[in-house]
Design goal:
The chain is mainly alpha-helical. The chain is 61% helix and 4% strand. It has one domain (47-252). It contains nine helices and two strands.
Length: 254
């Protein structure tokens, strides 16, 4: 079975004073039924960011393949999104139970899009994390939750086995509940945990990638481009490090 994120191993198939203030008597952003995009604004360096980093580190470090599996969903989503945007047919994706591996099934046949599809997987989690970090420090923690739910709905539409569907439903349902029913503080905490989870989880994937032999993404890129796989691995590490440095620096106000 392929390592996390490999393509198919065998085939390419200001704030108002109160409700109604300064808005003509209408409902304010804290009124029932109104969801403000600025939910629990998180200032860079606040304790919640440090706590969320610790929680994400525990999840990534102690829950093993479960934590890695959710990062793999983002990874495979990168492959899938580029494949769809390039017009290449796909047969969905799956996360393998037990080792947090995954594969995206893309139709056979060489094409200009194949290197881009193979490349898209490993950079996707840290880039999503960096984007989420920018939203968090801009006071849009709820937007992180909403974007996560939208992306997971898209993932559910392309998941092709029971285990993958269960993972996507659990993640989407949990994040969706927090986005709709959670308190502003809980929403902020979960949003920041998600950001750290993606930024840190990218390194778990790269660690498991090793030297990238066999049917790994770097091996496929080497066959498509004649650039050695070790170069692609170094590039993936570089992207992950830069995203963690930029995102962490912004959130921690360093």
């Amino acid at each position: 079975m392929g390592r996390p994120g490999e393509l198919g191993a065998t085939r390419w198939d200001g704030e108002p004073d109160g409700p109604g203030a300064d808005n003509g008597g209408g409902p304010g952003p804290d009124s029932p039924g109104v969801v403000s995009d600025v939910v629990g604004p998180v200032a860079p360096g606040e304790p919640v960011i440090v706590v969320a980093a610790f929680v994400a580190l525990l999840l990534v470090g102690l829950t093993g393949t479960w934590a890695a599996s959710f990062v793999t969903i983002a990874h495979e989503g990168g492959h899938l999104a580029v494949a769809i945007l390039s017009g290449r047919g796909t047969d969905g994706f799956r996360v393998t139970e037990g080792d947090a591996g995954g594969e995206t099934l893309v139709e056979r046949g060489w094409g200009v899009s194949l290197p881009f599809i193979a490349f898209a997987g490993y950079p996707t989690p840290p880039l999503l994390g960096l984007g989420g970090a920018n939203l968090v420090v801009a006071g849009r923690a709820w937007s992180v939750l909403a974007a996560a739910v939208v992306l997971l709905v898209g993932a559910f539409a392309h998941a092709r086995d029971l285990f993958t569907n269960v993972l996507v439903v659990l993640a989407g349902g949990g994040i969706g509940w927090v986005a709709v029913q959670g308190s502003p503080d809980l929403q902020s905490l979960v949003a920041v945990v998600l950001v750290w989870w993606l930024l840190l989880g990218a390194f778990v994937e790269l660690r498991d990638l090793g030297w990238g032999g066999g049917t790994s993404d770097p091996a496929r890129l080497a066959r498509c481009t004649w650039i050695p796989g070790i170069v692609w691995i170094a590039l993936f590490w570089f992207i992950a490090v830069v995203c963690l440095w930029l995102g962490g620096r912004r959130m921690l106000a360093l």
